[in-house]
């Protein structure tokens, strides 16, 4: 994987931007293939702070059916993609996991993942290493899990279906 030079992805390209920092690594951005003068803004990637980028990248790659597309030489940033969406796992040396829903360290970020079958999706999440969260505010619509770094994420039948 090596250097974060340009890599062709569908529908855009992956590139490293910004100077590396000892705490955050390098920012990973996927630029869309739309013309530069397009007025639309596009999310390039979602970055997730964690203590072990490789472990968290493997977890989300298994959960979402993505593959590794880039990694910094020092392993502080690992990017995964399905060709449309990109997640960048970024090492934080003094990482503190979320304590949500308890006060203190908020949830930091979370994914709401649309699924057609909550029970089947729950079984898959648990099989790849998720933990069921104690706090389940509406388990008939949302099931809350924790990833290996402690971030909550939800599987839901609420809203658009895959």
From TrEMBL:
Region (Disordered): 1-24
SUPFAM superfamilies for this protein: Glyoxalase/Bleomycin resistance protein/Dihydroxybiphenyl dioxygenase (SSF54593)
Domain VOC: 42-158
Pfam families xrefs: Glyoxalase_6
Top-level taxon: Bacteria
The name this protein goes by in its record: VOC family protein
Organism (species): Mycobacterium yunnanensis
């Amino acid at each position: 994987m090596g250097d974060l030079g340009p890599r062709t992805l569908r529908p855009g390209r992956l590139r490293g931007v910004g100077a590396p920092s000892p705490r955050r690594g390098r920012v990973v951005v996927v630029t869309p293939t739309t013309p530069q003068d397009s007025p639309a803004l596009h999310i390039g990637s979602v970055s997730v702070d964690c203590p072990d980028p490789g472990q968290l990248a493997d977890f989300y790659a298994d959960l979402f059916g993505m593959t590794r597309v880039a990694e910094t030489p020092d392993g502080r940033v690992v990017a995964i993609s399905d060709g449309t969406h990109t997640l960048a796992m970024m090492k934080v040396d003094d990482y503190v996991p979320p304590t949500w829903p308890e006060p203190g360290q908020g949830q930091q970020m979370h994914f709401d993942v649309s699924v057609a079958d909550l029970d089947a999706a729950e079984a898959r999440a648990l099989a790849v290493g998720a933990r069921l969260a104690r706090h389940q505010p509406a388990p008939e619509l949302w099931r809350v899990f924790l990833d290996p770094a402690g971030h909550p994420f939800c599987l839901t039948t609420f809203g658009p279906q895959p």
